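Human:
I keep going back and forth on a fold encoding question. Comparing notes only helps if you start from a blank page. Show me how you would write down a chain together with its backbone fold. Write it directly below this note and I will take it from there.

Assistant:
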Amino acid sequence: MKLSRRVSWFLAAFGVWSWIVWTTFVKNLWKDSSGLAFHNGSHAHPTAYFWIHLTLAIVSFLLGTAIGLLGVRGLLALRREGRAGEPPSGGTDEGATAGADGGPARAAQEPPVLTPRDR
């Protein structure tokens, strides 16, 4: 399956957003002093509310990470695809050798150009 650039960016952004939101949620859950998350405000005695919401946050971290990675992989694939279609950017190839006439050697798949004199 091929993802568009827009969808890939959306998925990557969703992964980042998920980490921001759920990190904040877990921090707030840990600081809870209302008695919902911990008995008598003691972190030594978490309640079922705490465990359920911590599990929810962990699952959301994992899903957000997986979705974000799909988006990043889509963006990397689009980037590689874009580079594959571009001509080489100037510079010299390390393995290039000079041709018979002293100019740059032609690629192996490129057929020689015949002039009227050569025929």
In short: Helices lie at 5-31, 48-84. The chain has a mean pLDDT of 83.
